[in-house]
Design a protein that fits this description.
The chain is of the alpha/beta class. It contains ten helices and eight strands. β3, α4 and β4 form a beta-alpha-beta unit.
Length: 296
Protein backbone atom coordinates (compact mmCIF):
# COMPACT_ATOMS: atom_id res chain seq x y z
CA UNK A 1 0.00 0.00 0.00
CA UNK A 2 1.40 3.33 -1.02
CA UNK A 3 1.85 6.06 1.55
CA UNK A 4 -1.06 8.56 1.50
CA UNK A 5 1.36 11.44 1.58
CA UNK A 6 3.25 13.14 -1.19
CA UNK A 7 6.95 13.77 -0.57
CA UNK A 8 7.63 17.21 0.78
CA UNK A 9 9.87 19.43 -1.27
CA UNK A 10 12.98 20.94 0.21
CA UNK A 11 14.48 24.22 -0.85
CA UNK A 12 17.52 24.02 -3.07
CA UNK A 13 20.88 24.29 -1.28
CA UNK A 14 22.16 27.84 -1.01
CA UNK A 15 25.85 28.47 -1.63
CA UNK A 16 27.65 29.75 1.44
CA UNK A 17 29.58 32.97 1.06
CA UNK A 18 33.30 32.70 1.46
CA UNK A 19 34.40 34.49 4.56
CA UNK A 20 37.22 34.10 7.10
CA UNK A 21 36.60 31.97 10.11
CA UNK A 22 33.99 29.68 8.63
CA UNK A 23 35.96 26.56 9.61
CA UNK A 24 36.22 27.90 13.15
CA UNK A 25 32.46 28.40 13.25
CA UNK A 26 31.95 24.82 12.12
CA UNK A 27 34.30 23.49 14.78
CA UNK A 28 32.51 25.51 17.49
CA UNK A 29 29.15 24.32 16.25
CA UNK A 30 30.30 20.70 16.38
CA UNK A 31 31.43 21.12 19.98
CA UNK A 32 28.16 22.76 21.00
CA UNK A 33 25.93 20.36 19.05
CA UNK A 34 24.64 23.19 16.84
CA UNK A 35 23.99 22.83 13.12
CA UNK A 36 24.90 26.07 11.35
CA UNK A 37 23.37 26.97 7.99
CA UNK A 38 26.71 27.19 6.22
CA UNK A 39 28.27 25.02 3.57
CA UNK A 40 26.44 22.92 1.01
CA UNK A 41 23.80 21.34 3.32
CA UNK A 42 20.13 21.68 2.36
CA UNK A 43 18.02 24.43 3.90
CA UNK A 44 15.11 22.85 5.77
CA UNK A 45 11.63 24.23 5.20
CA UNK A 46 9.99 25.89 8.19
CA UNK A 47 6.31 25.44 8.98
CA UNK A 48 3.91 28.11 7.69
CA UNK A 49 4.49 31.51 9.24
CA UNK A 50 2.87 32.67 11.44
CA UNK A 51 1.27 29.22 11.72
CA UNK A 52 1.39 26.72 14.57
CA UNK A 53 5.00 25.90 15.42
CA UNK A 54 4.68 23.99 18.71
CA UNK A 55 4.19 20.21 18.75
CA UNK A 56 3.73 18.35 22.04
CA UNK A 57 4.02 14.54 21.95
CA UNK A 58 2.46 12.25 24.55
CA UNK A 59 3.66 8.63 24.68
CA UNK A 60 1.55 5.62 25.54
CA UNK A 61 1.88 2.71 27.94
CA UNK A 62 5.01 0.52 27.88
CA UNK A 63 7.07 3.39 26.45
CA UNK A 64 8.71 6.67 27.37
CA UNK A 65 9.37 9.96 25.62
CA UNK A 66 12.38 8.61 23.74
CA UNK A 67 10.06 6.42 21.66
CA UNK A 68 9.26 9.58 19.66
CA UNK A 69 12.89 10.18 18.61
CA UNK A 70 12.53 9.32 14.88
CA UNK A 71 9.45 11.55 14.63
CA UNK A 72 11.08 14.36 16.59
CA UNK A 73 14.02 14.44 14.16
CA UNK A 74 11.69 14.86 11.21
CA UNK A 75 9.49 17.50 12.82
CA UNK A 76 12.50 19.52 13.91
CA UNK A 77 13.85 19.34 10.35
CA UNK A 78 10.54 20.88 9.23
CA UNK A 79 11.14 23.77 11.64
CA UNK A 80 8.81 22.84 14.49
CA UNK A 81 9.46 23.31 18.20
CA UNK A 82 8.91 19.81 19.61
CA UNK A 83 8.54 18.63 23.20
CA UNK A 84 7.95 15.05 24.35
CA UNK A 85 6.11 14.61 27.64
CA UNK A 86 7.48 12.07 30.11
CA UNK A 87 4.31 10.49 31.48
CA UNK A 88 4.60 8.90 34.94
CA UNK A 89 1.93 6.35 33.82
CA UNK A 90 0.67 6.29 37.41
CA UNK A 91 -2.88 7.50 36.68
CA UNK A 92 -4.86 9.43 34.09
CA UNK A 93 -4.80 12.49 36.36
CA UNK A 94 -1.02 12.29 36.81
CA UNK A 95 -0.37 11.95 33.08
CA UNK A 96 -2.73 14.83 32.31
CA UNK A 97 -0.90 16.95 34.90
CA UNK A 98 2.49 16.10 33.35
CA UNK A 99 1.15 17.10 29.93
CA UNK A 100 -0.33 20.32 31.32
CA UNK A 101 3.09 21.27 32.74
CA UNK A 102 4.61 20.96 29.26
CA UNK A 103 1.74 22.85 27.61
CA UNK A 104 2.29 25.78 29.97
CA UNK A 105 5.90 25.96 28.78
CA UNK A 106 4.85 26.57 25.17
CA UNK A 107 4.72 30.02 23.61
CA UNK A 108 1.84 30.17 21.19
CA UNK A 109 -0.56 27.62 19.76
CA UNK A 110 0.04 23.87 19.98
CA UNK A 111 -0.74 20.64 18.14
CA UNK A 112 -1.11 17.94 20.80
CA UNK A 113 -0.30 14.37 19.73
CA UNK A 114 -1.03 11.15 21.61
CA UNK A 115 -0.04 7.56 20.90
CA UNK A 116 -2.07 4.63 22.23
CA UNK A 117 -2.85 5.34 25.93
CA UNK A 118 -1.59 8.87 25.23
CA UNK A 119 -4.82 9.40 23.29
CA UNK A 120 -6.81 9.28 26.53
CA UNK A 121 -4.35 11.77 28.05
CA UNK A 122 -4.67 14.32 25.22
CA UNK A 123 -8.46 13.89 25.23
CA UNK A 124 -8.44 15.52 28.68
CA UNK A 125 -5.32 17.69 28.48
CA UNK A 126 -6.35 18.95 25.04
CA UNK A 127 -8.97 21.21 26.62
CA UNK A 128 -6.18 23.73 27.29
CA UNK A 129 -6.92 26.86 25.24
CA UNK A 130 -3.61 26.93 23.34
CA UNK A 131 -4.25 23.45 21.89
CA UNK A 132 -5.64 24.00 18.40
CA UNK A 133 -5.53 20.45 17.01
CA UNK A 134 -5.37 16.87 18.28
CA UNK A 135 -3.57 14.02 16.53
CA UNK A 136 -4.26 10.43 17.61
CA UNK A 137 -1.89 7.61 16.62
CA UNK A 138 -3.47 4.15 17.06
CA UNK A 139 -4.96 5.81 20.09
CA UNK A 140 -7.73 5.58 22.63
CA UNK A 141 -10.21 8.47 22.79
CA UNK A 142 -12.86 8.12 25.48
CA UNK A 143 -15.96 10.32 25.42
CA UNK A 144 -17.29 12.62 28.13
CA UNK A 145 -17.48 10.84 31.48
CA UNK A 146 -15.90 7.70 30.03
CA UNK A 147 -12.78 5.76 31.00
CA UNK A 148 -10.60 3.66 28.71
CA UNK A 149 -12.15 0.56 30.25
CA UNK A 150 -15.64 1.94 29.53
CA UNK A 151 -14.66 2.78 25.94
CA UNK A 152 -13.28 -0.67 25.19
CA UNK A 153 -16.24 -2.40 26.80
CA UNK A 154 -18.62 -0.29 24.71
CA UNK A 155 -16.71 -1.30 21.58
CA UNK A 156 -16.59 -4.97 22.68
CA UNK A 157 -12.81 -4.88 22.81
CA UNK A 158 -11.68 -5.69 26.37
CA UNK A 159 -8.13 -4.99 27.49
CA UNK A 160 -5.46 -7.55 26.71
CA UNK A 161 -4.98 -10.20 29.38
CA UNK A 162 -2.05 -8.65 31.23
CA UNK A 163 -1.81 -9.36 34.95
CA UNK A 164 -0.77 -6.54 37.29
CA UNK A 165 2.08 -7.19 39.68
CA UNK A 166 1.85 -6.85 43.47
CA UNK A 167 2.03 -3.05 43.13
CA UNK A 168 -0.76 -2.87 40.56
CA UNK A 169 1.56 -2.25 37.58
CA UNK A 170 1.22 -3.76 34.11
CA UNK A 171 4.44 -4.68 32.31
CA UNK A 172 5.34 -5.62 28.75
CA UNK A 173 9.07 -6.14 29.24
CA UNK A 174 9.50 -9.50 27.52
CA UNK A 175 11.23 -8.62 24.20
CA UNK A 176 9.54 -11.36 22.16
CA UNK A 177 6.10 -10.42 23.47
CA UNK A 178 6.80 -6.72 22.95
CA UNK A 179 7.88 -7.39 19.37
CA UNK A 180 4.81 -9.49 18.60
CA UNK A 181 2.20 -7.20 20.17
CA UNK A 182 3.62 -3.71 19.78
CA UNK A 183 6.19 -3.55 17.01
CA UNK A 184 6.15 -6.55 14.67
CA UNK A 185 7.38 -4.43 11.75
CA UNK A 186 10.56 -3.16 13.40
CA UNK A 187 13.76 -5.24 13.55
CA UNK A 188 13.92 -7.58 16.53
CA UNK A 189 17.06 -5.81 17.78
CA UNK A 190 15.15 -2.53 17.89
CA UNK A 191 12.20 -4.23 19.62
CA UNK A 192 14.61 -5.45 22.31
CA UNK A 193 15.78 -1.87 22.86
CA UNK A 194 12.18 -0.61 23.09
CA UNK A 195 11.30 -3.37 25.55
CA UNK A 196 14.35 -2.43 27.64
CA UNK A 197 13.18 1.17 28.07
CA UNK A 198 9.45 0.44 28.41
CA UNK A 199 7.72 1.80 31.48
CA UNK A 200 4.92 -0.06 33.27
CA UNK A 201 1.50 1.54 33.62
CA UNK A 202 -0.71 1.43 36.70
CA UNK A 203 -3.69 -0.79 35.89
CA UNK A 204 -5.94 1.70 37.69
CA UNK A 205 -5.10 4.30 35.03
CA UNK A 206 -7.61 2.70 32.69
CA UNK A 207 -10.47 3.48 35.09
CA UNK A 208 -9.80 7.24 35.19
CA UNK A 209 -12.68 9.11 33.55
CA UNK A 210 -12.58 12.00 31.09
CA UNK A 211 -14.34 15.14 32.33
CA UNK A 212 -14.78 16.63 28.85
CA UNK A 213 -13.49 15.13 25.59
CA UNK A 214 -11.43 17.79 23.80
CA UNK A 215 -12.10 16.17 20.42
CA UNK A 216 -15.73 17.26 20.73
CA UNK A 217 -14.63 20.89 20.34
CA UNK A 218 -11.35 20.76 18.42
CA UNK A 219 -10.29 19.35 15.04
CA UNK A 220 -8.77 15.89 15.24
CA UNK A 221 -6.72 13.58 13.03
CA UNK A 222 -6.36 9.83 13.42
CA UNK A 223 -3.59 7.52 12.17
CA UNK A 224 -5.23 4.12 11.67
CA UNK A 225 -2.66 1.30 11.79
CA UNK A 226 -4.11 -1.64 9.89
CA UNK A 227 -1.59 -4.30 11.01
CA UNK A 228 -1.92 -3.50 14.69
CA UNK A 229 -1.80 -6.38 17.20
CA UNK A 230 -2.29 -4.20 20.30
CA UNK A 231 -5.39 -2.15 19.41
CA UNK A 232 -7.53 -3.89 16.82
CA UNK A 233 -7.82 -1.97 13.52
CA UNK A 234 -11.62 -2.31 13.62
CA UNK A 235 -11.65 -0.68 17.06
CA UNK A 236 -9.44 2.15 15.83
CA UNK A 237 -11.83 2.72 12.93
CA UNK A 238 -14.80 2.89 15.31
CA UNK A 239 -12.95 5.42 17.48
CA UNK A 240 -12.05 7.60 14.48
CA UNK A 241 -15.66 7.50 13.28
CA UNK A 242 -16.96 8.43 16.73
CA UNK A 243 -14.68 11.46 16.75
CA UNK A 244 -15.40 12.53 13.17
CA UNK A 245 -11.64 12.63 12.77
CA UNK A 246 -9.66 13.09 9.60
CA UNK A 247 -8.34 9.56 9.19
CA UNK A 248 -5.26 8.24 7.42
CA UNK A 249 -4.64 4.48 7.26
CA UNK A 250 -1.21 2.89 6.89
CA UNK A 251 -0.09 -0.78 7.00
CA UNK A 252 1.74 -0.55 10.30
CA UNK A 253 2.07 -2.16 13.69
CA UNK A 254 1.03 -0.32 16.84
CA UNK A 255 4.43 1.42 16.95
CA UNK A 256 4.15 3.49 13.76
CA UNK A 257 6.19 6.22 15.44
CA UNK A 258 9.15 3.83 15.10
CA UNK A 259 8.30 1.86 11.94
CA UNK A 260 6.72 4.70 9.90
CA UNK A 261 8.08 7.96 11.41
CA UNK A 262 7.90 9.78 8.08
CA UNK A 263 4.16 9.11 7.73
CA UNK A 264 3.60 10.14 11.35
CA UNK A 265 5.53 13.40 10.94
CA UNK A 266 3.67 14.25 7.74
CA UNK A 267 0.30 13.71 9.38
CA UNK A 268 1.27 15.99 12.29
CA UNK A 269 2.50 18.60 9.80
CA UNK A 270 -0.79 18.29 7.89
CA UNK A 271 -2.77 18.85 11.09
CA UNK A 272 -0.65 21.87 12.06
CA UNK A 273 -1.10 23.49 8.66
CA UNK A 274 -4.84 22.80 8.50
CA UNK A 275 -5.45 24.02 12.06
CA UNK A 276 -3.46 27.19 11.41
CA UNK A 277 -5.72 28.00 8.46
CA UNK A 278 -8.73 27.94 10.78
CA UNK A 279 -7.25 30.46 13.25
CA UNK A 280 -8.69 33.95 12.58
CA UNK A 281 -6.33 36.52 11.10
CA UNK A 282 -3.64 33.95 10.43
CA UNK A 283 -2.06 34.04 7.01
CA UNK A 284 -0.92 30.56 6.08
CA UNK A 285 0.90 29.44 3.00
CA UNK A 286 -1.41 27.17 0.98
CA UNK A 287 1.07 25.30 -1.18
CA UNK A 288 1.81 21.60 -0.69
CA UNK A 289 -1.33 20.95 1.36
CA UNK A 290 -2.31 17.27 1.49
CA UNK A 291 -5.84 16.27 0.54
CA UNK A 292 -7.97 15.52 3.59
CA UNK A 293 -10.86 13.11 3.94
CA UNK A 294 -13.13 13.16 6.95
CA UNK A 295 -14.59 9.99 8.43
CA UNK A 296 -18.09 10.41 9.77
Amino acid sequence: MKSPFKPMRQSAPQPAPSRPGRQNLRRAAAVLGISLAVGAGPILAAPPTPGIRNIVLVHGAFADGSSWTPVIRRLQAMGYQVTAVQNPLSSLADDVAATAHVLRRQTGDVVLVGHSWGGAVITEAGNAPQVKALVYLSALAPDNGESVTDLLQRLHAPLAALTPDAEGLLWLDDPAQFHRIMAADVPIAKARQLAAIQQPIAAASFTGRISHAAWRDKPSWYLHTTRDQALQPAVQLAIAQQMGATRVAIPSSHFALQSHPEAVARLIDQAARAAARSIPDTAVEKSNQPTQENVK
